[in-house]
UniProtKB/TrEMBL annotation:
It comes from Liquorilactobacillus hordei. The keyword Kinase applies. Pathway: Purine metabolism; ppGpp biosynthesis; ppGpp from GTP: step 1/2. This is GTP pyrophosphokinase. CDD domains: NT_Rel-Spo_like (cd05399). One of its GO terms (molecular function) is kinase activity. One of its GO terms (biological process) is guanosine tetraphosphate biosynthetic process.
Length: 203
C-alpha cells in the first residue's frame, strides 16, 4: 500500500531542502562566531510500512492525509550537536527563520523521558513549491527535527539496538541499567559544557 499516495515522490526532495536550509544556517553562524552549530546532520523519509503501523496504532485512516497531516513526521531530520547549549541555540535560530514555522516542541533535554531518553523535538511546517494534501500550490509539509548531543544520540542508538532487537528475559533490569547509563552520559554532557564555558572565559 502506498500510504503517501502521489505526494510520496516529493518527500525526499523536501527533506533535502530542509537539510540544505539548516546547513546554510550553520555556515552563517560558523562564519560569524567561528563555532559550528552541529557535528552531524541526517534525514530520512519514514518507510511506508512504519507509517502504516503508526496510523493503525493511533487509530487513523490509512490515507495520505493521515500520514502527512495528522502524523507530521513523514520527514525526519536529526541534528547531532557537540554541546547542550548548541541545541538551544539552534532551536532559537530555527524559531526565527522565515522559511519554516515551529508549530510544536518537546524538550526532553532538560527533562528526560522516564527511560532516560533525551532529545529536543520540533515539528515544523515548511512551505514548498509542491502541491500539498489540501490542494495548495505552493503547499505546506511537516517535518520533525530531533536535536541531540553526541552522547544523547549514542545512547538512543544503542538503547534501540539492545532493547528492541532482542527477546529480553529481564526487561526491568535492562531498563534500569540503560537509565543509569543515560544519567551518566547526561552528567558528562554537563561537564563538557562547563569545560567549554571555562575555556571561553579564558579566551
Amino acid at each position: 500500500m502506498e500510504i503517501y499516495g502521489a505526494y510520496g515522490k516529493y518527500l525526499p526532495e523536501i527533506k533535502n531542502e530542509i537539510m540544505h536550509k539548516i546547513s546554510e544556517l550553520s555556515h552563517q553562524i560558523e562564519k560569524r562566531d567561528e563555532e559550528k552549530l552541529y557535528e552531524h546532520l541526517s534525514g530520512r523519509v519514514k518507510q511506508e510500512e512504519s507509517m502504516i503501523e503508526k496510523c493503525q496504532r493511533k487509530g487513523l485512516d490509512l490515507t495520505p492525509r493521515s500520514a502527512l497531516n495528522d502524523c507530521k513526521d513523514a520527514i525526519g531530520i536529526r541534528v547531532v550537536c557537540n554541546f547542550i547549549d548548541d541545541i538551544y541555540k539552534l532551536v532559537g535560530l530555527l524559531k526565527k527563520q522565515d522559511w519554516c514555522d515551529v508549530i510544536k516542541e518537546k524538550d526532553y533535554v532538560s527533562k528526560s523521558k522516564p527511560n532516560g531518553y533525551r532529545s529536543y523535538h520540533l515539528i515544523i511546517k515548511f512551505n514548498t513549491s509542491y502541491p500539498d494534501i489540501n490542494g495548495h500550490v505552493p503547499g505546506d509539509y511537516y517535518a520533525e527535527i530531533q536535536l541531540r548531543t553526541i552522547a544523547m544520540d549514542s545512547w538512543a542508538s544503542l538503547e534501540h539496538e539492545l532493547k528492541y532487537k532482542h527477546n529480553i528475559k529481564n526487561p526491568e533490569q535492562i531498563g534500569n541499567e540503560l537509565k543509569r547509563c543515560a544519567d551518566q552520559l547526561a552528567s558528562c554532557d554537563v561537564q563538557m559544557q562547563t569545560i567549554r564555558q571555562v575555556i571561553r572565559e579564558y579566551d
